Amino acid sequence: MTDIRHFFSAMLLGTMLLSCSEAEVSSDAVVRSQLAFSVSQMSQQTRQGLDVVQENPNDYRGIDHLDVMSFITASPTTPVAVTDEPLEDLASGTEADRVSGKEYYYLDEYMLKSGTNRVLVYGQAKAKSGKDSNTENGKLNTTLNGVTKPADITFSLESICKEDNAGTGVTDPDRDEEFDPAWNLANYLTTIANTSGWSENADLKNRYLNFIHADTDGSGLICGSAAHIKAYVKALKQELQAIIVAEGTSDDTKALCTTIIENIGNTEDATSCVNNGYPGTLGLPDAAAVLRWIGSENRFRVLTKASTLDNINDVTRYAYPAELWYYVNSGVCTSENPVTKVDYKNSSNWEALLAEKYTAGPTVNNHTRSVAVESPLQYGVARLKMILEPITGGDNGLKDAKDEVIVAANTTANYPLTGVVIGAQYPVGFDFKPLATKSDDNKCFIYDTVVGDKDTETSKWTVNTLVLQTYEEERVPVILELTNPEDGTEFTGRDGVVYPGTKFYLIGMANGTDEGYGTESYNRVFTQDFITQLTLKVNSLANAYTCMPDLKQPRLEVGVEVKTKWIQSTTTTVILD
Q1: Long-range Cβ contact pairs of 74-80 (< 8 A, separation 24 or more)
Q2: Residue 173: Cβ within 10 Å count
Q3: Within the chain, how many helices (H) and strands (E) appear?
């Protein structure tokens, strides 16, 4: 990538050194070498905490291990291709020691075959001590172990929840116990709905139909999170209490209201299922929890997979953010003289070291004593920098789906940001680029909850998330997870009521662009080793979701103005309305 150090702040500057003494060249043209590499401590502002991303040089994370594969390509300047055959299998999981006083690392007893003119190198960052969770550090699944060619190497996001059998029934022995909360919540609502006489009572029948979401704008779907259900039944309880004391209410209706309230019970009781934390206890967004009333069964069922009827996002598609991996596809420089650790330590910079010590050509041969990987390691992943502008009423106020003003004009709303969902994430290949064959079966959506705090001076939220490169012309949904505070105003969104104390979701769509930085220009949203910056602005609450729609399909209610660009400081605006 052309002079990338000047514009990508989430970059790794690194090099690898391969050296050996004259006595270590074997008769079968295999060099028994020392393998070393250099990593600078450049400021890295990504989704994780500053200590995790090496913002402070004293907190440098280092490399957990290396994976190296060597090649002979058509020329030293011809990059390794997916179809190329390596000289030897990938050397995986290698740990390196650090050169004192430098960001150089080395390995002893490393074997490098004569004829090598290119290498693939992968480095995995160490998890920061005390922040070893996938939520904090991200996670990538790899096929690096035991591979024999580039075509076998892939990287993919780690699903937060691998099981989709929520709510299959208590008697089902294959049911994952983690889904007990979902099943209990569905049972709880079923008990309330099936209160004897409710569905036939003339005074309360409409409220019954509303409760089971029959023929609603949300197509019968109900957010199945514990927080939403708690607010849902609380609102029903308040309505029924008002009916009981209203003038003219019949004794039969009063008695029925009382029975329904008894079935609702005390929702403040800590042992109540509405306080079980689902689905946050699984690491999922509240909108991932969905229920539907099944009339033929007279019960609520838990939904976890999209279908022609159920416009929802599969629970297994939510994934952790990408993990910090480094990568290079590079030529080599050689020397017929040994290059020692003292040389590495005394060098002023890598370019000067190459110019002074590595002058014997770009191919390893029987006379080679030291080898340097010419190009720096760079981030294999991409970065989204998302800035959420203050949510205000603007000039006309912030309105909901009923066209009612929820936030008065020129008033700042207190809707805390608690997470971000980022779509269009597919497995990538050996070069951290999407695979040639695109399949929605492998499509994932990052759920990032490490969003920090709102800036006290600007009232803006800035979220940095590591992601994988997207396909050309792929539209990327970027979803805000916001909370209507406990003392907030109830409002109506795209698929139902957003109650105080519950979360809601606003969707924006980012598109690729042909505007790049310098000579780099791609029609995609995220590109390996680049930053994509989006500034999001909320103009309406009318399309707020409580249940996450199927993000693989174009059936998303969004109003978006977006111009995507890889930037250093220029801002892109996305309007969510």
Answers
A1: 75/117, 76/117, 76/118, 76/331, 76/332, 76/362, 76/363, 77/331, 78/118, 79/118, 79/329, 80/118, 80/120, 80/150, 80/329, 80/430
A2: 5
A3: 7, 27
Nearest of 58, 3, 15 to residue 39 by alpha carbon: 15
Claim: this prediction has a pTM higher than 0.70: yes
Alpha helices in 108-152 (DSSP H): 134-137
Strand, helix or coil at 370? strand
Question: How many CB atoms within 10 Å of residue 101?
Answer: 9
Task: Note the pLDDT tens digit of each residue in 529-549.
Answer: 877 878 888 889 999 999 999
Tell me how far apart the alpha carbons of residues 20 and 114 are, in angstroms, rounded to a whole number: 13
Cβ pair 506, 232 in contact under 8 A: no
Structure tokens, 175? 């049911």
The dihedral through the CA atoms of 131, 137, 142, 144 has a sign that is negative
The per-residue pLDDT for range 141-184, each reduced to its tens digit, is: 999 887 889 999 999 999 998 876 654 444 444 554 456 889 89
Assess whether the previous peptide bond of 57 is cis (omega < 30° from 0).
no
Got the DSSP string for 283-328? T--GGG-EEEEETTTTEEEEE-S--SS-----GGGEEPPPP-EEEE
